[in-house]
Specification:
Layout (H helix, E strand, L loop, with lengths): L5 E2 L3 H6 L2 E2 L8 E5 L15 H10 L1 E2 L1 E3 L5 E3 L2 E5 L5 E6 L13 H14 L1 H7 L2 E6 L4 E6 L6 H6 L7 E2 L2 H4 L16 E3 L9 E6 L23 E5 L4 H10 L4 E2 L7 H5 L4 E4 L6 E7 L9 H10 L2 H8 L6 E2 L24 H14 L6 E7 L8 H12 L2 E7 L1 H7 L13 E7 L28 H12 L3 H17 L3 E7 L3 E4 L21
Parallel strand pairs: 3-14, 3-15, 19-20, 19-21
Antiparallel strand pairs: 1-2, 4-11, 5-6, 7-8, 8-10, 9-10, 12-13, 13-14, 15-23, 16-23, 17-21, 17-22, 18-22
Length: about 525
């Protein structure tokens, strides 16, 4: 719709008549219900999908990952020396921060260092790096001290903590302190004055953004923005979200509960489908630092007690949208493996009998398991309830603590005793693009490091294999190593793989050109006026 108006131009002009003002274009606003409320903003300090999606709206990365899992130039083109030890990145023309200043190589050096300090895979990479330095305003050079074959892959990875670039002044924020000034160089600008944590986040098109010329492909290629504004709205429950979609109050729901799809099937004005082709893996994580899961036999007993099919059936329901997949890396990726399948497959009754036997011989003394349950994230709200019942049947004492997702995210980072706010087990999920190999898979970190992802397992065997994986470029060797890591991780009870699921999005008819990808992507999308 266009808006026209008349403006008085003073007494003399009014005497002569009226002048019609040129029409102004209406603003195109896309209203979206995301899979979780956005409560924190720093994309370097969170593995939450909603924060990562926010990051890709506001910030950009040196490299992007295309739909074939291949790193591609994004903010920078690159060259690799013949010996594979020197990587030279040249920033492309037209890159500006949202405050109008130019993006420089020094900004990117500071950003890479901050990212590496907060990402497990990045921290590992830095053990092989001799230096990262800016040699001019547009050129930065990363030099390895010893061979490391995954530099490009890590700089392009879309999850769980992508290496987002930010101005040097923000990248030098003290360790552990949140960056709250959302100044990036990405295709959208964050509207700080309209942000209401947990309720609303607003983004407007970055008019200064210059997309690459290549076709869009996941987080690579030309990020062409076709809407003026994107508004993320929080809704109290899925039924409310669906009602809002059907009434036209929202245009898109990122994740729809599968059991409510029949409501959409009856509405010709609503469409739905899978936008993330690789899907997600649901995971049950044990806290290895607190009793009772500091005991490997107790963890093994829990592994046998839990049941993939029951968890998937309860949470997803429709088998069309889930897979009982053993692979720790996802079902459809090159490193997919069935190693350690005895902990995840087989007759449920026989597995339960094995669980009871193991628990009885483990020395378990009845210590209560505190299971955290997120009440405001539909896809994860049922698994803790079902898992708690299975564990109780095996002989565990279990308490389910209900809380919102933001509280769970905060609480999971602490390893203090349960009585002081700690925890024993939680369920979460990971996009397959964030777990597809042992280097990026945060749950396979066996270092026990305080800064590792929550749960903190310790396994020198896995750490040795991960280091072996880092230096091999042969796919067959990588498959062998990945399989061995998976077998040990399951045997030591790193976490329970609860199965792989597809997430379904729904949108108003007329919304077009939604892009498939590892997260919800808002470039390319069009909305009719």
């Amino acid at each position: 719709m266009t808006i026209t108006g008349l403006r008085a131009l003073g007494v003399a002009a009014m005497a002569a008549g009226w002048m019609q003002v040129a029409p102004a274009l209406a603003e195109t606003e896309l209203n979206v219900v995301m899979q979780a409320p956005l409560r924190t903003l720093d994309p370097h300090l969170s593995t939450a999908q909603i924060v990562r999606t926010h990051g890709f709206m506001v910030f950009d990365t040196l490299l992007g990952m295309d739909a074939d899992y291949k790193p591609q130039p994004q903010m920078a083109d690159y060259q690799v020396s013949d010996d594979g030890l020197t990587y030279t990145f040249t920033l492309r023309d037209g890159l500006k921060w949202h405050d109008g200043s130019d993006v420089t190589a020094e900004d990117c050096v500071a950003s890479l260092k901050r990212w590496a300090a907060n990402d497990a895979a990045g921290k590992t990479m830095m053990e092989y790096v001799a230096s990262i330095e800016a040699t001019s305003d547009k050129v930065l050079v990363l030099t390895l001290a010893k061979p490391f074959g995954h530099v490009l892959e890590l700089l392009a990875k879309p999850s769980p903590v992508p290496p987002f670039m930010m101005p040097k002044r923000l990248a030098e924020t003290p360790s552990g302190e949140q960056v709250t000034d959302m100044i990036g160089s990405g295709p959208f600008k964050f509207v700080a004055e309209e942000y209401r944590p947990g309720d609303q986040a607003v983004y407007v098109k970055n008019e200064d953004y210059v997309p690459r010329t290549e076709p869009m492909s996941w987080t690579a290629g030309g990020k062409v923005v076709n809407v003026d504004k994107v508004v993320w709205k929080a809704m109290p429950d899925m039924q409310t979200s669906i009602n809002a979609l059907q009434s036209g109050d929202v245009d898109l729901i990122e994740q729809v509960a599968i059991d409510l799809l029949p409501l959409l099937q009856m509405n010709d004005e609503v469409e739905y489908g899978v936008l993330n082709p690789l899907g997600i893996q649901v995971t049950g994580r044990f806290n290895h630092r607190l009793p009772p899961f500091d005991n490997a036999d107790v963890r093994r007993a829990a592994m046998y007690a839990l049941d993939q099919e029951q968890l998937m059936q309860t949470a997803i329901g429709d088998p069309e949208y889930y897979t009982l997949c053993v692979s720790a890396y996802g079902c459809k990726v090159p490193l997919a493996s069935d190693a350690g399948s005895e902990f995840l497959t087989g007759n449920a009754e026989e597995r339960m009998a094995k669980a009871k036997e193991l628990l009885a011989s483990s020395g378990y003394d009845g210590t209560s398991v505190l299971m955290m349950q997120p009440t405001d994230l539909t896809i994860l709200s049922t698994q803790p309830i079902v898992a708690a019942e299975r564990l109780r049947e095996a002989g565990f004492t279990v308490e389910v603590a209900s809380m919102d997702w933001a509280t769970l995210q905060s609480r999971k980072n602490g390893w203090q005793p349960v009585a002081e706010g700690g925890w024993n087990m939680l369920f979460t999920y990971w996009g397959v693009t964030g777990i597809w190999n042992p280097l990026v898979h945060a749950l396979l970190d066996g270092s026990g490091d305080d800064n590792a992802w929550s749960g903190w397992p310790v396994s020198p065997e896995i750490e040795a294999l991960r280091k072996e994986y880092l230096v091999t470029g042969n796919l067959e060797d990588q498959k062998r190593i990945a399989s061995e890591i998976q077998s040990i991780a399951y045997d030591q009870g790193f976490y329970f793989n609860a199965g792989e699921a597809q997430t379904v999005s729904a949108w108003s008819k007329g919304i077009a050109d939604l892009q498939p990808g590892p997260i919800m992507l808002f470039w390319g999308v069009t909305k009719p006026e």
